[in-house]
Amino acid sequence: MQEDFEKLDWFRQARSLSTAEVSDSLDYFGLPGSALGIKPVAGPQKLFGFAFTIRFAPVDRFEPGTVGDFIDTLTPGTVVVLDNGGRLDCTVWGGILSQLAAHKGIGGTVIHGVCRDTSEADKAGYPLYACGKFMRTGKDRVQVEAYEQPVTLGDVRVLPGDLVVGDADGIVVVPRLKMHEVLAKALQTRETEEQILNAALGGMALSEARKKYGYHTLQRACATRPAQ
Q: Where are the bilayer-spanning segments (predicted)?
């Protein structure tokens, strides 16, 4: 799936967008997507790919827990999105998975919860984003409840195939059905902000440059525009 989009010029350009630029574009269209509380915890602070979603639940007291062997099914560039309900007391991602994912060319992992073995992710150069890190295993504490179903990441709903973008500021999620529209707007806004900056560096008052290039309309979600 991602390989097909990589052939498109606008998609390749969008890889350079920051989460702030994407977040502003989401605001412009009245869309949610900025995942509160999810931050980089290991590896490169850059991530851009389509979501493969997994939802966990507390372990059934009559059955052993599972953390899932999904890694073998994933294609290069995929972003693993794990919803462990924001739990901070046990992890659903560790060093073996980080090393295997890096070897397979997986795009990164984002967790509504915690991870461990972050030094191994650093060594492998594998991007990890989460609510934090904690050493205790999730085995026999949680179980996989669903694959490729809607999940929650921070305060954002994520569907399978949604675009996940990460950098040093955190994570944003772009709905797959609005991806082209949102990314195109973000690229356009970047050009406008560069014009503002260049004008100000050239001697124009910042207030004048902002007015000239419509700065105050760039991120403002229109009150009459319905979220789509």
A: none
Residues 25 and 20: their CA atoms lie apart, in Å, by 9
- Point out which residues pair with 57 in neighbouring strands: 143
Give the model's confidence band at 227: pLDDT under 50 very low, under 70 low, under 90 confident, else very high. very low
Burial state string for 184-195 with b = 16 or more CB within 10 A and e = fewer than 16 = ebbbebbeebee
- Summarised one tens digit per residue, pLDDT across range 65-102 is 566 678 999 999 999 999 999 999 999 999 999 999 99
pTM of the model: 0.88
Question: What's the rounded Cα separation, in Å, for the pair 105 and 170?
Answer: 21
- Is residue 59 within 8 Å of 87, Cβ to Cβ? no
What's the CA gap between 27 and 36, in Å, rounded? 15
Question: What SS3 state is found at 80?
Answer: strand
Q: Which domains does the chain have, with CATH numbers?
A: 32-174 (3.50.30.40)
Q: Helix and strand tally (H, E) in the chain?
A: 7, 12
Report pLDDT digits (tens) over 116-160: 999 999 999 999 999 999 999 998 899 999 999 999 998 999 999
pLDDT score, position 224? 41
Spell 136-164 as b/e; 16+ CB within 10 A means b.
eebbebbbbeeeeeebbbbebebbbbbbb
Asked if residues 199 and 209 have their Cβ atoms less than 8 Å apart, the reply is yes
Tell me 8's DSSP state: S
